[in-house]
Each structure stands twice: as structure tokens, then as C-alpha cells.
Amino acid sequence: MSTLRVLQMLPLAIALLVACQASGAPDTEVWSKPYEIVQRPRPTFPDQARANSGRVDLICVVAAGGRMTGCQIVSEQPERQGFGQAAVASMRQARIAVDPNGPQPGARIRSTISFWNGQGQPPS
Q1: Which of 41, 72, 76, 121 has the fewest beta carbons under 10 Å from its own?
Q2: Residue 55 CA to chain centroid, in angstroms?
Q3: For 24-79, what is each residue's pLDDT tens digit?
């Protein structure tokens, strides 16, 4: 690729980078204040889990009506046992209050989902 072609494509690359940051890319700010949960997620314990408990941290985008969309797994313990996917699926039914002092549609929030199958020690 010629130097001229690279220079011609540079404005497009910069525009795409700015658009990704504005749309809730992972490096954008996450809401850090408490928020009111209107409808809690009800995760289903994964069938393939070998552990008695699990914990998943998610970052989701608030949509209209307080719905959660675009959830991304930040951490999952233990990994590869289905806890992450179950947590993301459960957030489809979760709702938060959208009010002037809380996160507005488009805001990114952090949520933690804990799992326990009733055996052994519950998660701390």
C-alpha cells in the first residue's frame, strides 16, 4: 500500500476510533455511583458447572426503560463453566430505575452476579 493511500485512509481511521469511543467501547467511563435496581436478574445455574459457586462481573449499557444491553464479561470465576454466559443471559430481564440522579440511557454500569447451587460454602 502506498504512503499516499495510507494518508488518505487516516481520517477514516480516526473517525472510526472516535465513533467506537462514543458508542461505549471498553475504555469509556463506567457509572460509579449506586443505582436503584427495579427488577433483579435471576440467573440460572449452568448445567456444565463443576463448581458449587461462581461469580461474574459485567459491564452493561443502560437502554431505554432501564433495560440492560451490550453486556460484556469483565471477569468470571471459575472460568469456562458457563457462569459468564448465564450472567449475561440473566441481565436481559434486569431493569434499573432511570431518574435524573441515576444512570441515563447510554451509560455503562458494572454488575456482579453470584451463583450458588446450595452445596458447599456460599460465595462471599
Answers
A1: 121
A2: 14
A3: 444 579 999 999 999 999 999 999 999 899 999 999 999 999 999 999 999 999 99
- Asked if the structure places residue 122 within a domain, the reply is no
**Do 48 and 108 lie in a common domain?**
yes
Q: At 83, which helix (H) or strand (E)?
A: helix 83-90
How far apart (Å, rounded) are the C-alpha atoms in residues 17 and 97?
31
Which residues span the domain enclosing 8?
1-28
For residue 98, what is its C-alpha cell? 432511570
pLDDT tens figures, 94-116: 999 998 989 999 999 999 999 99
Judged by DSSP in three states, 105 sits in: coil
**If you search the block for the grid coordinates 458508542, which residue do you land on?**
23
User: Helix (H, G, I), strand (E, B), or coil: what is residue 75?
Assistant: strand
In total, the chain counts a number of residues equal to 124
